Amino acid sequence: MATNIFDDINASDIATYWTTLQQQEAPYLGEILFPSTRIPTSDVTWFRGQTSAPVPLAPSAFDTKTSLRGRDGYTKQSVHANYFKEGKYIDEAMRQQLLTVANSPIQGQKDIILNRIFNDDAQLIRGAALTREILRMQLLQTGKYSIAGNKQIYADDYQMKATHQATAAKAWNADGATPIDDIRKAKDVVGADTDQTITRAIMNQKTFDALLANEQLKSTILANNANTALATVPQTVLLQWIQAEYGLTIQVYDKSYTGSDGAIHRFLDDGNVVFMPDGDLGSTSFAPTPEETDLLASTSADVSIVDGGVAVTTTLETDPVTKMVRVSQNFVPTFENIDGVYVLKSFSSASGSTTQPTGGTTNDGGGTKPADDSKPADNTPKTVAVTGVTLDQTTANGTVGGTAQLKATVAPADATNTKVTFKSSDETVATVDGSGKVTFVKAGTAKVTATTDDGAKTADCTFTIADKPAADAGTGTTTPPEA
User: Fold this and answer.
1) CA proximity to 458, closest of 398, 411, 395
2) Which of 13, 54, 266, 376 has its CA 20 to 30 A from that of 190?
3) From the CA atom positions of the chain, what is the Rg in Å?
4) 177 and 301, same domain (yes or no)
């Protein structure tokens, strides 16, 4: 028997209840493409695979120095985890029901009340999962995300290649569309850029229906049918044919949710087709929440971790006397294989984007508004956050005594705070001043990093410094590496 009416409402029991519910529900697609991982701090570094396509070896004369090729196969990216938190408390009406059944000999009565409370609290955890999926699906389709609420706005641009965001030669839901050509182009572009093979494509049901009704596909598959306009291709036949001809598995992902505007939105926009290779595209990186780091070992609160990094915290409040349940998460997705993804707009959606920045309530499995949800029109700050920084050089060569000038470009162009600081990894080899001017001190290698004041975004340039030839009485020089 619990010592007071709130003892049965604790984080561990809520976590167990949620885990049981989860086993009965299909996971979000983003949980498969971006599996969960744990990171020690809110600052996340990941490496974007630029390309694995081979580049011809440069010719060389005999008895000459080796031309050095930069190690540019991977680019370091830095992002920051985003914190979300919401809570619920037991109101007076629920407290009175708990009092009524607290000493009841009929356990079933008590279980009904507790299950009602647990289900209510599970909605907070489901809302956290919904927030992650909205953010991941934005990132998958556009290479960027934006989510707002409670006077906070979290946004980042992972710089998806413009050549990997295309529009169909002709809309798939119009006469004369050629989806076969669009599929071939997607495979060719990704293959040429990354030497990867596109094996999967995802779209919602409306987009798949347009593909199913396409005359080019019907006339190809039903070659012996004289009147393809009146013919129907079974869904399984189309899927099998595309798999056999192009090695492409199509998945229809039609989950939706109710946004903060009260409208129904699909995670995948109408008309969007996302092509990708096998394997993980990135990860959902969970950093510790304040509740986990500060309260997990405390006697004043009960904390349990679910879903790989979501903290469920319960505390007993004294004025008024009640039990507070909080759900928090501190996460950010990484997108290591962003260059292996190709997004095709097969036709335009009349209503525009269907993935709202601020989320809402899921329509397939229940849910609640994700943590910190409110309408951005009222709460979005006037400042424009920095989403990234690039340098005009990533590698360069020079000689002792020479100088080089680095130019940093902050994105977006209208960012409020464009301040950048420069730092050398080895000032005995190369120094750098506040304007980005690099001075070569001695032979060796040094990396100069530009860091934005807003968001701590970074970009690097590696300098290889050689001694000045004895016969050279002039100043040092700076040259880009040979291709």
Assistant:
1) 411
2) 266
3) 28
4) yes
List, as one string, the DSSP characters of 291-343: HHHHHTT-SS-EEEEETTTEEEEEEEEETTEEEEEEEEEEEEEE-TTGGG-EE
The residues, any chain, with a CB within 8 Å of residue 377's CB and separated by 6 or more, are none
Q: Digits of tens for pLDDT over the chain (483 positions)?
A: 445 556 677 888 888 889 988 888 889 999 999 999 999 999 988 888 644 455 577 787 877 777 666 555 567 788 899 999 998 887 666 666 766 766 667 666 666 666 777 777 888 999 999 999 999 999 999 999 998 887 888 999 999 999 999 999 999 999 999 999 999 999 999 999 888 999 999 999 999 999 999 988 988 888 765 566 667 888 999 999 999 999 999 999 999 988 777 888 899 999 999 999 999 999 999 999 999 988 877 777 899 999 999 999 988 877 777 788 999 999 999 999 999 999 999 998 764 454 554 545 555 533 333 334 333 344 444 578 888 889 989 899 999 999 999 999 988 888 888 889 999 999 999 999 988 999 999 999 999 999 988 888 889 999 999 998 765 544 444 544 444
399 and 288 co-located in one domain = no
Residue span of the structural domain in which 284 resides: 1-54+71-371
Spatial distance between the Cα atoms of 358 and 376, rounded to a whole number of angstroms: 7
Q: By the 8 A CB rule, do 390 and 158 touch?
A: no
Contact predicate 75/399, CB 8 Å: no
For residues 316 and 409, state if they share a domain. Answer: no
- Measured distance CA(477)–CA(466) in Å, rounded: 10
Give the C-alpha separation, 17 to 325, whole Å: 14
Q: Are residues 394 and 362 in the same domain?
A: no
Distance (Å, rounded) from C-alpha 270 to C-alpha 359? Answer: 17
Cα-flanking dihedrals φ and ψ of residue 224, to 5°? -95, 5
Q: Which amino acid is at 186?
A: A
Given a contact cutoff of 8 angstroms between Cβ atoms, the answer to whether 432 and 444 are in contact is no
Domain count, the chain: 2
- Domain CATH number, residue 116: 3.90.1690.10
Torsion from C-alpha of 58, 60, 66, 69, nearest 10 degrees: -10
| Same-domain check for residues 416 and 332 | no
- CA distances (Å), origin 200, targets 125, 131, 196, 278, 428: 30, 24, 12, 7, 50
Point out which residues pair with 44 in neighbouring strands: 79
Phi/psi at 381 (5° precision): -65, 160
* Claim to verify: residue 164 and residue 233 sit in the same structural domain: yes
Is 210 in the same domain as 313? Answer: yes
Could you tell me if 104 and 303 are in contact, meaning their C-beta atoms sit under 8 angstroms apart?
Answer: no
